[in-house]
Specification:
This protein is mainly β. Helix content is 6%, strand content 29%. The protein has helices at residues 127-133, 234-237, 252-259, 380-384; strands spanning 68-69, 75-80, 92-100, 106-109, 116-119, 141-146, 166-176, 192-193, 199-204, 216-225, 230-233, 241-244, 266-271, 291-300, 317-318, 324-329, 341-350, 356-359, 367-370, 392-397, 418-427.
């Protein structure tokens, strides 16, 4: 499956159309996990504009199953018995699924890709899934008929119409332990306090290298409010966090915290609100909230190039569109062309002051993107076309071919010339 890595969301909104319309943040492709557990969506019609009732079903393969009907109205039938661990609230479950509407239309499926992963019992999926998956054990395959009040209700969502009964075939693939439920018990006097006010407690000393300023790091964390209520965990999602130390990608307290660690170590931190989200808060974090983070420093990643390669003006060649291109290293193999899938690292700067726009190194993964598909930022397609594996190419993007007189948010000012350094890792390696 193609991996589309968002390098900087403010600039890569145009890439959003590449993935499935109903992909939940940080998960697979299960539409079931998009909605909150109230069975409604933001576009729910008002009482004056009720949604129309979706077509009656079921699809043929759901018609003759021996269903158990629960008090909520969920219907579930086990069609293949497993013998593994049961699903339980608080555990991480991995589920393969296919979802259909009453007319037999498949609106979403994980088959052929990765199973969806989510913590059970935390409201990350629709109510029908919370209830139905909790009735399974690893290896079970089941049919679930989810009434609209346990799914998306009168609002529908995406390709799911209002008041739709949903039909799922699901398989419970695996059950895993999630992140810790509570912080490590630490006496207040056992924390060390830095000059900034960050409180540090070393749970386990690391034996590896310490990160430096600007160093991309990969960490696992679990976070709580100071009253012990749990906020989030990368262990639940199975997706460690990657960020560059000391940059503005994340709040300053997290950079300072990780900067006290060595690879392989685990530490717990109390991060005061002025080093976190301050007086404004964000999302589910209220203003002036102190946070507790338990962090494992997993690895240090290669840093991004510090500056563009120095290239004589005469060594740049203008393509038909007007992009200026210079080959730093030729690479080998067949040249990239339209339709190929390129795996590449890219780092960008503003020509005027040398400030960095973005770098895929900060995210710990190269970008995977079709060549010449029109899905890339200005200059990327021009640079990638004709490159060979292992090649390095630098591209100058004049303002009229970039973001012009408007710029791009706070990152690229109006009338700015950009410089991209592109390193082609592979062609078609992950394409199916």
């Amino acid at each position: 499956m193609l991996r589309y890595i968002l390098v900087l969301s403010a600039l890569l909104l145009l890439l959003a159309a590449c993935g499935p319309a109903n992909v939940p943040e940080g998960e697979g492709t299960a539409t079931a996990s998009v909605a909150e557990n109230d069975g409604t969506a933001d576009n729910a019609p008002t009482e004056e504009e009720p949604g129309e009732v979706a077509a009656e079903g079921p699809p043929p393969e759901f018609a003759d199953a021996d269903y158990e009907t629960t008090e909520s109205g969920l219907q579930i039938a086990i069609i293949e018995e497993g013998d593994g661990e049961p699903a339980e609230d608080g555990k991480i479950v991995l589920v393969h699924y296919t979802g259909k509407l009453a007319d037999g239309t498949t609106f979403d499926s994980s088959v052929g890709g990765e199973p969806i992963r989510f913590p059970l019992g935390q409201g990350r999926v629709i109510d029908g899934w919370e209830e139905g998956i909790a009735m399974l054990k690893v290896g079970d395959r089941a049919l679930m008929v989810v009434p609209p009040e346990l799914a998306y209700g009168p609002g529908g969502t995406g390709g799911i119409p209002p008041n739709a009964t949903l039909y799922f075939e699901v398989e419970l693939v695996e059950v895993l332990e999630g992140g810790p439920a509570a912080p490590v018990s630490v006496d207040e006097g056992d924390y060390e306090t830095t000059d900034s006010g960050l409180q540090v407690y070393v749970v386990e000393e690391g034996t590896g290298d310490a990160p430096e300023e600007g160093q991309p790091v990969r960490i696992d964390f679990t976070a709580w409010f100071t009253d012990g209520s749990r906020l989030d965990s990368t262990i639940d999602s199975g997706q460690p966090l990657v960020f560059a130390l000391g940059t503005e990608q994340l709040f300053p307290g997290l950079s300072e915290a990780v900067g006290t660690m060595r690879v392989g170590g685990q530490s717990q931190f109390i991060i005061p609100s002025d080093l976190a989200f301050g007086e404004t808060g964000t999302g589910g974090i209220p203003p002036n909230a102190d946070l507790i983070f338990l962090i494992d420093l997993l690895e240090l990643l290669p840093p991004a190039p510090e500056a563009p390669v120095e290239v004589d003006e005469d060594d740049y060649v203008a393509d038909d569109a007007g992009f200026l291109i210079a080959d730093i290293e030729e690479g080998s193999g067949d040249p990239a062309e339209a339709g190929d899938v390129a795996e590449f690292h890219v780092t960008g700067w503003l020509e005027e002051d040398g400030s960095r726009i973005l770098s895929s190194y900060d995210q710990g993964e190269p970008i995977l993107l079709p060549v010449a598909s029109g899905q890339a930022l200005p200059g990327w397609d021009a640079g990638l076309t004709g490159m060979r594996e292992g090649g390095v190419r630098q591209v100058i993007v004049p303002p009229e071919l970039g973001f012009g007189e408007t710029g791009a948010g706070d990152v690229v000012p109006p009338n700015a010339t950009m410089i991209w350094l592109i390193e082609l890792v592979s062609l078609n390696a992950d394409a199916e």
